[in-house]
Amino acid sequence: MDYRLKAADEAAFYQLYLYAFNKMDSPQRRTFFSQRYQHAWVYGLRDQQQLVSGLYSIPLQVNFHGTIYQMNGIGDVMNAPEFSGRGGAGTLLQAALTEMAAKGVTLSYLAPFSFRYYRRFGYEQVFDHTLYQLASSDLPRLNFEIHGKIVRLPLATAWPQLQNLYAAQPVNQRGGLLRPTWWWQYLVAKNPAWEVALRYDEQQQLTGYLIYQRTATTFAIQEWQFSDSATYQALALFISKHGTSYQQFSYAAPTPVQLDRLAEPYTLSATTIPYMMARIVNLADFLQRYPFVHAFTPITLTISDPILPANQATWQLQRQHGQTQVQKVATTGDLALSIQSLTKALFGYRQLTDLLRYGEISGDAQVAQQLDQALVQEAPSLIDYF
């Protein structure tokens, strides 16, 4: 059965979205919603001609330690209340994953309303954020000698200047989005209050930026990108100069920040927040092009993935002389694990030896240790949201 919706279905999908998520209609909301709809594969389920379930799957790309993978972001997974509990959303998610697999998409990300629910479909938590909050009275006193200049602009004006710097930052190359032009425009439409502080060096080169939002009480940092220490210091000083105007400062960082940079770390509230889930859709492609950091002799992995049977097999892989070989074999694997556990390990979120210790996988501890040494070591990082 074909669950794909067409351009003519946008109005019905939007009305279901408003009702299911208790959102208020507005010209601004219609603008960013339409941008998302027009770039997505959109799915819907009808009951007597009425749209009662829906979701979108946005084709994008991610940079995973220098390897570019196709990734579809899932969002607006919804049911009309009178149709909830009938499996409509699950039916559409299965259809979306099946189409991704058929079209060669390697990965999928989503923001879960329930981690338990999406694990049933092969997704796993791999992205966290750390929310930092600091009272203005506890802002550190900075005495940096600043060179270059800071320019303030609305995001709507600044974003074309940010694209290359964003893409070049190592933190955005650990599973982060390769933002196409339309996505930057979508961010502008969705977040009209976002402002940008751009830092230029003495040669007039852009070396960093800060995206932030100001409310009556809070200076909220959305993104903080910098290429060198001088840029970090310039942007930190820019933040501190707002100390008399706001009661609180916050930053939802995609990676932990070193607390020893504060004179009094106790004054800072730091909360780790589960953020997004990921799923390997095309395991053969992910393994074949995976950026292994060390060579290793043949290892076999028995993978369970009942949602996408093409992944469910025993896989033999090895990395020698800069070449990776991946194939299915008819043997019992050295390690047995689910697609969710494999996702955590390959993304660098958990080590195989750690998963083995807690009983999440089974098999040979020496093989787990050997493969761990070949996998990426840095935790994944994602700023964007679907």
Written account of the structure:
The chain is of the alpha+beta class and 386 residues long. It has three domains: 7-110, Aminopeptidase (3-Layer(aba) Sandwich), CATH 3.40.630; 131-275, Gcn5-related N-acetyltransferase (GNAT) (Aminopeptidase, 3-Layer(aba) Sandwich), CATH 3.40.630; 282-374, SCP2 sterol-binding domain (Nonspecific Lipid-transfer Protein, Chain A, 2-Layer Sandwich), CATH 3.30.1050.10. It has eleven helices and 17 strands. It has helices spanning 10-20, 27-39, 88-102, 115-119, 155-168, 181-190, 229-240, 283-288, 339-346, 352-357, 365-374, and strands at residues 41-47, 50-64, 67-79, 107-110, 124-135, 149-154, 174-177, 195-200, 206-214, 218-226, 248-253, 269-280, 296-304, 313-320, 323-329, 335-338, 362-363. The strands form two sheets. Strands 1, 2, 3, 4, 5, 6, 7, 8, 9, 10, 11 and 12 form a twelve-stranded mixed beta sheet that branches. Helix 2 packs antiparallel against helix 6 and helix 5 (155-168) packs across helix 6 (181-190). It is globular. The two termini are 26 Å apart. The mean pLDDT is 96.
Topology (SSEs and partners):
Layout (H helix, E strand, L loop, with lengths): L9 H11 L6 H13 L1 E7 L2 E15 L2 E13 L8 H15 L4 E4 L4 H5 L4 E12 L13 E6 H14 L5 E4 L3 H10 L4 E6 L5 E9 L3 E9 L2 H12 L7 E6 L15 E12 L2 H6 L7 E9 L8 E8 L2 E7 L5 E4 H8 L5 H6 L4 E2 L1 H10 L12
Parallel strand pairs: 3-4, 10-11, 13-16
Antiparallel strand pairs: 1-2, 2-3, 2-7, 4-12, 5-11, 5-12, 6-8, 8-9, 9-10, 13-14, 14-15, 16-17
InterPro entries: Acetyltransf_17, Acetyltransferase_Eis, Acyl_CoA_acyltransferase, Eis_dom, GNAT_dom, SCP2_sterol-bd_dom_sf
EC number: 2.3.1.-
Keywords: Acyltransferase, Transferase
